[in-house]
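re: ur question from the group chat, yeah i did fold both. here u go
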Amino acid sequence: GGSWLTEFSVLTGMASRFFGGMQQFVQVYMAGRIDDAMPAALAQCGYRNVMFYPYLKGFFGSSKFFESVGLKQIFDLKAQKAQSSMEMDSFYYANALEEIAQHKAGSQQPLFVYVQTMGAHWPYDVTYWPERKVAGAPGASAEIHEYLRRLAMSKEDYEGFRAALAQRFPDQRFLIVQYGDHQPLATRAFFGFEQQEIEDINAALPDSSPAFETYFSVNAINFTPPALPQMQVLDAAYLGAILFEQARLPLPDSWRERLALMTHCNGRYAACPDRAAVL
């Protein structure tokens, strides 16, 4: 469940782990109860919001949550004409590029595109796309080798996506905020686990464990964004506020408060020592 825990945090600006034992169900019981989510705030700024989702949109009822927070148009597995729920990242980027082109041809409205990719996702006991010759980690465990192969593919595909945006839309400004939703199961052995699922690992580890650390990055095309916060670790719940700031959009009051909380808690949210401030 690591993916939807992070989706919730990124889209709502609230850390899913702060919901304790109910965190696995937070998308279900919070659907329709949040009117201040990041996509909804973007819609108030005049944005059209679209999402590229690798599963069928009825997966765990996820579309009800996504639509309720402002992602009204969802291109799911069927709409994208995917052969499976796991395609190369270049597949999802190509679909996003075509949608951007169609939108630009008929509208001056700004566009927010939320793309979920699957190239580096589990399982790692199968060699995916063996025809692609990329570096892995020969000599490492089979899972780590395969994961690093997929990561190399994802990096190539992302670089191709950035280049295509710059080439196809030279007069447009783009902000790309990329994040890892959770660590791969391939790293669980580093934290003392063998065959446990992510849900069990989540429950067994403290909030401060490096097992919860992945990455985020910000890239801009045709403009220069402001400097990123000077903090080594940020809770995913702050990523939406950072997106507003990096895009130089007017911050709604609540999202400005999130940035203040981020500074007060040194980038933490669920793990912030001042729980009263978070509440």
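okk and heres the other one u asked abt
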Amino acid sequence: MTPKRIILVRHGRSEANEDATMYSRVPDYKISLVEQGSEEARTAGRKIAELIGDGAFGVYVSPYLRTMQTKECILSQIGQKPVFDYQDPCLREQDTGNLPGVLEAASNREARGQYGAFFYRFPNGESGADVYDRMSSFMNSLYRLFERPDCPENLLIVTHSVAMRCFLSRWYHWTVDYFDSLPAFPNCHIVVMTRQEDGKYQLSEPMTQLLTSK
């Protein structure tokens, strides 16, 4: 059965959100949350706990340290164990290259802004289109889950801002121009997709507010 809700959450505030030079000194997948990020994740957990009540839920999470830490903080507030807790590398952050220099990283991000976020490919890294393709692979896993009679009524996906935007663009068939116009999600922003009577999923109001404020 298809789940009642699909809940997407960006990770909490990280060391690199406070100091962008971290990307040049620490492998991206090893970047940790700061205390503010942990508190943001616990706050998100309380909101999610209120949303799902005692309904069963399963978890998919990016294997990066900051997303794993965010997931643990969220679960600490829910009060019940998930039906499953899967790491999926398809949900990882957009690869911007292996430890690029500070000046190189700044130059690459400026070039992305000029070229367009969806098609710009970071040197030795990925484009938004590559992440979009990964989301297609991830959705194949979801569709197989939906066919199972024990699919939980809530799915929690803890990931990154670009991955969230690519997931939503793939799911709702948004255009490339629309993707490029989307703002980055704030840390621990929650997007809720709720199944309607016709089987389609409607986006939550926080998502609508974010899009209309850009």
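fwiw on the second one: Residues 153 and 172 are 20 Å apart (CA to CA). The beta strands are 5-10, 57-61, 85-87, 154-159, 190-195, 201-203. idk if thats what u expected
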